[in-house]
Design a protein that fits this description.
Radius of gyration: 18 Å
Bound molecules: 3R-hydroxydecanoyl-coenzyme A
Number of domains: 2
Number of strands: 10
Order of helices and strands: HEHHEEEEEHHHEEEE
Shape: globular
């Protein structure tokens, strides 16, 4: 069944209220590979509530996450062909270590890459404190539906991603991922079997389960914070990027970054072993000081 653009654009999703504790924040951080050096204070900050704990700001990407509509047959989405296409987050303030949020997801745009090609579903999620109503973050979660193009929609995307500068990067950060990373990351909520079941992964066209896009994205946030923010989550303003190739758990990820102006950097994440760019067109905005 082809995509049903009218149905998708008319979806009115319920607001989601979600509570989280410091343990959820720690499990989220473990799903980004934190704890690989248990003596590193900069890592323990995201894992141990007794050590002036912070929540990783990228955790906003999983708070109030609403992906259930992708399994609604009336959308015409073939869930097996879905991959995460792009992600962007904008912080409106630091994320508390525990709390309760309200979030609502809206589908704001459909992009048609043409017959036989893909379609992109652009979503937007506003997250606010459930008690005070204070905005916490805005998130774009863009879903790439492989082979779903040709439904007659616009080929132009309103917000497009910029490529990094041509010059050599100003620095590179590497993060090694353990083979069980996707099995840890899924405990933060995305139970898509593409990341855990080898049979499903093969049916979807991958040699084995791939890493969640949001784990890759969180690792990019971790790397950029390490490089430019002294690993201080409260200095992160925004992060964006496009998933250009899958990551397999166990791979080492290299993040090249370019500082463009004070508080603004571009980045690209690679798997050097495969010479693959896995997260392209990265952008990171941050505070120069705490
Ligand atoms: C709200 C809740 C939502 C929840 C959904 C997510 C659930 C999760 O569990 C799923 C995941 O986490 S999947 C893991 C993370 N994602 C990935 O690994 C995808 C990696 N990328 C790919 O495989 C390909 O780039 C691929 C397949 C994306 C595109 O490859 P090709 O088809 O070969 O594309 P290509 O020929 O290069 O280009 C075609 C047109 O599409 C644009 N494009 C390419 N990659 C894109 C991407 N990642 N996002 C958006 N657009 C993209 C190209 O620019 C091109 O457009 P145009 O013709 O206009 O130039």
């Amino acid at each position: 069944m082809p995509l049903n653009p009218d149905y998708l654009m008319s979806l009115d999703r319920d607001e989601i209220v979600q509570e989280w504790s410091w343990k959820d924040a720690a499990i989220y951080a473990l799903g980004l590979g934190y704890g690989d050096d248990p003596l590193d204070k900069r890592q323990l900050r995201f894992l141990d509530h007794a050590q002036q704990m912070q929540a990783m700001p990228a955790m906003v990407n999983v708070l109030g996450y609403d992906g259930a509509w992708l399994r609604d047959e009336k959308t015409g989405v073939d869930y097996l062909k879905v991959v995460h296409g792009e992600q962007a987050m904008r912080m409106h303030g630091p994320l508390p270590v525990e709390g309760r949020i309200r979030a609502k997801t809206r589908i704001v745009e459909l992009v048609d890459k043409g017959p036989g090609k893909g379609a992109l579903i652009v979503t937007e999620r506003e997250i606010s404190d459930a008690e005070t109503g204070e905005p916490i973050a805005s998130v774009n979660h863009n879903v790439f539906c492989r082979g779903a193009g040709g439904f007659g929609g616009s080929a132009r995307q309103s917000v497009t991603m910029e490529r990094p500068p041509e010059r050599a990067p100003d620095g590179t950060v590497s993060v090694s991922t353990p083979p069980q990373l996707a099995l840890i990351y899924r405990l933060s909520g995305d139970l898509n079997p593409l990341h855990s079941d080898p049979t499903v992964a093969r049916k979807a066209g991958f040699e084995r389960p791939i890493l969640h896009g949001l784990s890759t994205f969180g690792i990019a946030c971790r790397g950029m914070m390490d490089a430019l923010c002294d690993a201080d989550g409260s200095r992160v303003k925004s992060l964006a990027g496009r998933f250009s190739a899958p990551v397999y758990p166990g791979e080492t990820l290299s993040i090249d970054y370019w500082t463009e102006s004070p508080g603004k950097a571009a980045f690209e994440m690679r798997v050097p072993e495969r010479e693959a760019t896995v997260l392209g067109s990265g952008r990171f905005d941050y505070m120069m000081e705490a």
